[in-house]
Amino acid sequence: MRSVAILLLVLLTGCGATVHPTRTASGREGAAISCDGLLSTWKRCENAAAKTCPHGFDVIDRQEKRIYVDTGSFKGRSLVVSCKP
């Protein structure tokens, strides 16, 4: 029962944004960012992109999908950005 409560708490709050630095096809630095969790929003992804790319960024790809687990489902969001020089 306790592990279910902990899992539910993690799903509700989300774990923040996960940022994976990358290079785009054009050779610019960029990042693949995922923001999962019931209360997670696109704003969380965009804030992570702004921290990763201090001079601004261009959005290359934006996806949203529903992730199913034993206790329910939540939205998974992913954002791929290219940092401006």
TrEMBL record:
PROSITE patterns: PROKAR_LIPOPROTEIN (PS51257). Keywords: Signal. The keyword Signal applies. Residues 1-19 form the signal peptide. This is Lipoprotein. It comes from Paraburkholderia saeva.
